[in-house]
């Protein structure tokens, strides 16, 4: 029986407000009727410690991962790494996915370039993005309804997920600890969009797409989103099923 019942969502520098809200709502919807509960956790509380005994999940939202690095430093990252390796679970979406990879290449050679090694290393390869062009911080110019191939059954083989700046997960050599959960169906070599990583006794799911978002969560008055929202709404049933799949992967 699981004793840890709190699903923690990082809130602080680097976490985009809407992404934090939507991740909390998504996890809360899944947890309805269970004994799990969702709580936001600030970087100073992570560094203080004590959360590990209550945590069933540590989730990092979209935003920018350099903010996570700034607030948590090596100590905070080490605490999270140790928590997962000792049997905990980590969920990283978009920026949280970059953060959980060994190396990131974001807009390499471009004006928004952020490249370098990361300490968590749940995914022992590179997270490279944005996969689709046009991304700008604080904007929906690069937003896209990404078709994700999860190949689990004919009914849920593909679904459309909100995308805005996320990466693809690339291994330089095969790893027995990594399972590709979903791929970018529209991109030439169909790179990994979502991965499940075995980390010691724990698990991490990293995602380049925002499957925590419903079409209804986006601004219908935004011209950049008017063609995206209907595609997401068509996939809503599949999206909700996929949330449950991810929670099972995270041993929840």
TrEMBL record:
GO terms for molecular function: biotin--[biotin carboxyl-carrier protein] ligase activity. GO terms for cellular component: cytoplasm. Signal peptide: none annotated. Residues 7-252 form the Biotin-protein ligase N-terminal domain. This is Biotin-protein ligase N-terminal domain-containing protein.
């Amino acid at each position: 029986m699981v004793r840890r019942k709190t699903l923690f969502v990082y809130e602080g520098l680097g976490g985009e407000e809407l992404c934090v809200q939507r991740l909390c709502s998504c996890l809360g919807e899944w947890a309805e009727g269970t004994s799990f509960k969702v709580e936001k956790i600030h970087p100073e509380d992570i560094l203080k410690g004590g959360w590990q005994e209550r945590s069933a999940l540590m989730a990092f939202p979209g935003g920018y991962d350099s903010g996570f690095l700034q607030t948590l430093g090596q100590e905070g990252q080490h605490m999270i790494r140790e928590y997962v390796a000792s049997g905990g679970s980590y969920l990283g979406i978009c920026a949280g996915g970059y953060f959980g990879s060994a190396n990131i290449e974001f807009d390499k050679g471009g004006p928004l370039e952020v490249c370098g090694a990361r300490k968590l290393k749940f995914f022992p390869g590179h997270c490279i993005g944005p996969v689709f062009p046009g991304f700008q911080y604080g904007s929906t110019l690069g937003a896209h309804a990404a078709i994700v191939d999860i190949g689990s059954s004919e009914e849920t083989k593909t679904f459309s997920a909100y995308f805005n700046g996320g990466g693809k997960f690339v291994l330089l050599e095969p790893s027995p600890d990594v399972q590709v959960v979903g791929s970018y169906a529209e991109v030439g070599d169909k790179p990994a969009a979502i991965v499940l990583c075995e980390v010691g006794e724990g698990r991490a799911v990293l995602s380049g797409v925002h499957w925590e978002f419903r079409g209804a969560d986006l601004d219908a008055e935004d011209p950049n989103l008017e063609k995206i929202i209907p595609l997401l709404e068509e996939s809503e049933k599949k999206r909700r099923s996929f949330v449950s799949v991810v929670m099972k992967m995270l041993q929840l």
